[in-house]
Amino acid sequence: MKYYRYLIFLVLITIILHSCNSGDPKQSTVPASVSIKDKKYEVYTTARDTSLRLTLSVSGVFDSARQPLETEIAVFINPNKKYQEMIGIGGAITDAAAETFARLSPENQNKMLEAYFHPEKGIGYNFIRTNIHSCDFSSESYTYIDEGDSALASFNIAHDMKYRIPLIKKAMEISGNKALLFASPWSPPAFMKDNNSMLKGGKLLPKYYQAWANYFVKFIREYENAGVPIWGVTIQNEPMARQTWESCIFTAEEERDFLKYYLGPTFWKNGLKDKKIIVWDHNRDLMPYRADVIFSDSEASKYAWGIGFHWYEDWSGGKPMFDNVRNVHDNYPDKYIIFTEGTVESFVPDHFDYWPNGEEYAISMIHDFNNGTSAWTDWNILLDERGGPNHVGNFCFAPMHGDTRSGELFITPAYYYIGHFSKFIQRGARRLSTSPSRSALLATSFENPDGSYVSVVLNTQDQPLEYLLICGDGMTRLQIPAHAIQTIKY
Asked: Is 341 a catalytic residue?
């Protein structure tokens, strides 16, 4: 009898241990022995209308944590609760960025590269997006093949060798070859579509599904032959948008079937199983449905590494749909989520020091990370003085602008706001549970692979605030200026 009781006891213990270790594979719990008290910290600050730009403003040592008073504002970090892994932060090297870069002075070219991609001298970008043939941020529409060549016999990336590939290679070199590159198409060639145009939407004709899948393979191989490794691809940029520029419509079911029967099998047959395939690549608003349709199909899902999203769903004045990111993360914890594009679409030429743009980036980044996002990609890293070049006049803002008339480089406040994340949060970092006690502050935190902690705190208010940063058994009292962002490294 005692023997059977012992067996039952062992079975119960096994069940309990299993339940504790199950759930989100990208979430884990570390031992509660982490101690922050007496540890040193540094605070870097960027504040609106001041000279503070990623400036080391305070350093100190953590005291013992205590219960905050009712009147005190606090940011609570639980170092024992870890969530998704950070893959990277960066921006897009488009034709527009590369063409503008080529017209900068040599000194400013080097300044831009180091500012973005150098891990010590700059903000350490390690994630890059680029376009598969032309997009709106190209000076013209073009493809890599002759019109009508479904066999892809004429495939050639000579166009990209002039500006874009040299810039990508320089960026990768400055990053210490740590930058990951993913690529997105805006439209298949015109003859493959039902509207016979690369512009204004249209759909990929079913008879060209295989040829289009082969086109992805050709692109990857030609880029890698040119010395540019491809980490992954998205299937279609903004597949539900009929734009005046390069665009193509895929319903959720059409994207699922293209992935399931063509792109996924074609990658695997051609030795590209390690390339990440990312679905959706559009706004947060419809991403739960897209995820449900594709990830609920086991055959399609096995080819999909994750889902990408943009931030343009709030264009009509509504609020960003951050909860939709959480919905996808909670429903499909084995899939990765990355922010693939965002930019401020309105741009006033020669008005580069517009501080609210930087705050908009920080708000999105904090919410996106806190809802399960593992990588974050800005749109164009560089544009000219008009917000182009762009062959359809779709001019936009970028964190840096180059004056092609004078060769001058303008670094906007948005660059510094993004840098509060990209410079300090390392690849492989794990997000930590972080909760401000008042809505006046937004915050997120990560533990880096080297054991250092990073907390990013944003003040969107018109007045400076004093707050307690409490992590485990450690606490310190800090001040943040009005409309400022701080990174605390400890």
From this structure: yes
